[in-house]
Automatic annotation (TrEMBL):
Catalytic activity from the UniProt record: a hydroperoxide + [thioredoxin]-dithiol = an alcohol + [thioredoxin]-disulfide + H2O
Record key words, sorted: Antioxidant, Disulfide bond, Oxidoreductase, Peroxidase, Redox-active center
CDD domains on file: PRX_Atyp2cys (cd03014)
Disulfide linkage: C60-C94
SUPFAM superfamilies per the UniProt record, alphabetical: Thioredoxin-like
Domain of life: Bacteria
UniProt name for this protein: Thiol peroxidase
Span of domain Thioredoxin: 18-164
Family: Belongs to the peroxiredoxin family. Tpx subfamily.
Record's miscellaneous remark: The active site is a conserved redox-active cysteine residue, the peroxidatic cysteine (C(P)), which makes the nucleophilic attack on the peroxide substrate. The peroxide oxidizes the C(P)-SH to cysteine sulfenic acid (C(P)-SOH), which then reacts with another cysteine residue, the resolving cysteine (C(R)), to form a disulfide bridge. The disulfide is subsequently reduced by an appropriate electron donor to complete the catalytic cycle. In this atypical 2-Cys peroxiredoxin, C(R) is present in the same subunit to form an intramolecular disulfide.
Enzyme class, UniProt record, top EC level: oxidoreductase
Gene: tpx
Subunit structure: Homodimer.
Length: 164
């Protein structure tokens, strides 16, 4: 279990991020067209999982925009933006913002939050996902993780992309 803050107030997640060097846990996420995507769909590509509470908050929206821009500069790398938002919210946001270089995945049907240790287990965001980044290499190994200590802060984009 990890402890993070929201505006200085401490809250817990249901577990810990996968360890660097371990195999990434499989996942099932729902895309904007309601199809499912899994870790296997990205085999042979590097993968950045941009995990956050909700697309309808400023910092979360900024992380999508920033990773969208960075994704266009990265070779053989896919970015999946993961939240518990319904796929319709992600589709609306990406359409309005012109987001084209990232995929959005909703965790609302599956166990992603538990499998990756990022579901809030208490506090006002219980059930949503803690702001985190997981980078996975072409073989499915975790090569970088960051659990953002303060939920209202952005992740370290430079560190996440440097491992690629």
């Amino acid at each position: 279990m990890a402890t993070v803050t929201l505006q200085g107030n401490a809250f817990n997640t249901c577990g810990d991020l996968p360890k660097v060097g371990s195999k990434a846990p499989n996942f099932i996420l729902v895309e904007t067209d309601l199809s499912e995507t899994t870790l296997a769909d990205y085999k042979g590509s590097k993968l950045i999982l941009n995990i956050f509470p909700s697309v309808d908050t400023g910092v979360c929206a900024t992380s999508i925009r920033t990773f969208n821009q960075k994704a266009s500069e990265l070779r053989n790398t896919k970015v999946v933006c993961v939240s518990a938002d319904l796929p319709f919210a992600a589709a609306r946001f990406c359409g309005v913002e012109g987001i084209k270089n990232v995929v959005t995945g909703s965790s609302f049907r599956g166990s992603f939050g538990t499998d990756y240790g990022v579901s809030f287990s208490d506090g006002p965001l219980t059930g949503l996902l803690s702001r985190s980044v997981v980078v996975i290499d072409e073989q499915g190994n975790v090569v970088y993780t960051e659990q953002v200590a303060e939920t209202t802060d952005e992740p370290d984009y430079a560190a996440a992309t440097a491992v690629l």
